[in-house]
Amino acid sequence: xxxxxxxxxxxxxxxxxxxxxxxxxxxxxxxxxxxxxxxxxxxxxxxxxxxxxxxxxxxxxxxxxxxxxxxxxxxxxxxxxxxxxxxxxxxxxxxxxx
Length: 98
Fold this sequence. Notes:
Blueprint: E1 2-8, H1 9-14, E2 23-29, H2 31-40, E3 50-57, E4 60-64, H3 68-74, H4 79-85, H5 87-97
Antiparallel strand pairs: 1-2, 2-3, 3-4
């Protein structure tokens, strides 16, 4: 997996004198994984690379992301390509368990 970017919405808001809870979007993926998906379903590029929202909700940190099954269904992916999206769930499970 490659980390493409981390967008810090709170920092950007603060740079304009605005207040926002800690809110970051982590963008990551793998060309080896994503390319076959986009080759089969070009509109999947709207959801790739994968993104996870990390945000503060009071004293809790929450992770939000589209369910891999929902992405696979949206683009009517084969079982083989659906397994490529399943990595998102595995990665976020690891982060949550830490």
